[in-house]
Amino acid sequence: MAGRPPTETERNQEATVYVGNIDDQATDALIWELMLQAGPVVNVHLPKDRVTQQHQGFGFCEFQTEQDADYATKIMNQIRLFGKPIRVNKASANKQRLLDVGADIYIGNLDPLVDERILYETFSRFGTLTTQPKIARDDAMQSRGFGFVSFDSFEASDAAIEGMNGQFLMTKPCTVTYAFKRDGKGELHGDAAERLLAAQAKKNNYSLQAAISGT
């Protein structure tokens, strides 16, 4: 478990599970020992806050084989750890299934002390986050005053915008809207086309679950 965590390309995605809703008291070593019940573990990585080094409430566990990972999703999902049911599902399947999701929001006018962990704790109560919250930072790693959060459904992102726009985070009222799409055409996420794709996916039982990149 020591040393640099594996990147997403180095990790065997087919043998990797996403572990979510992890209590603050849990450690990499504890998740390692827990997952050993499903099979031999190659590595465990819980992304940490840059400042506090506290994990963000989610992580990844790579097993030796895809069969072990499949078994882990069956026996470990919803197991209670420090009173909280953890979520365990295949990381590779999640990444593929999230390609058409556009429930991405922009949070502006952020207090300089607001970090990724605060965004996670604030916005995860509206629904499942699909990636770790991101705060734009300069070369000195100082906040540029805005960030982004992505949800697995438009119901969650709509609720977050309605509930948080204009609300104070630390000392400043934040601005919460849908983020611009990356194609550079000036369109915002959350439009009718994206919502239709998401609705069709759910109608076809194409589950849109959390898949947080663990690089």
The percentage of residues in β strands lies in 15-25%
Task: Give the biggest beta sheet.
Answer: 4 strands, antiparallel
CATH fold assignment of the largest domain = Alpha-Beta Plaits
Look at the helices and sheets and give the structural class: alpha+beta
Based on Cα principal axes, name the global outline. globular
Distance between the termini: 15 Å
Order of helices and strands: EHEEHEEEHEHEEHEEEH
Mean pLDDT: 83
Q: What radius of gyration results from the CA coordinates?
A: 18 Å
| Number of helices, counting only DSSP H or I runs of 4 residues or more | 6
Number of domains: 2
Helix content: 25-40%
Based on the coordinates given, report the CATH architecture of the largest domain: 2-Layer Sandwich
How many extended strands?
12
CATH class of the largest domain: Alpha Beta
Query: Major sheet: order of its strands?
Result: 2-3-1-6
Describe the structure.
There is one protein chain. The chain has 215 residues and is an alpha+beta fold. It has two domains: 13-97, RRM (RNA recognition motif) domain (Alpha-Beta Plaits, 2-Layer Sandwich); 104-187, Alpha-Beta Plaits (2-Layer Sandwich), CATH 3.30.70. The chain is globular. It contains six helices and twelve strands. The strands form four sheets. The protein has a four-stranded antiparallel beta sheet with strand order 2-3-1-6. The chain has a four-stranded antiparallel beta sheet with strand order 8-9-7-12, with helices on one face.
A few lines on this structure:
The chain has 215 residues and is an alpha+beta fold.
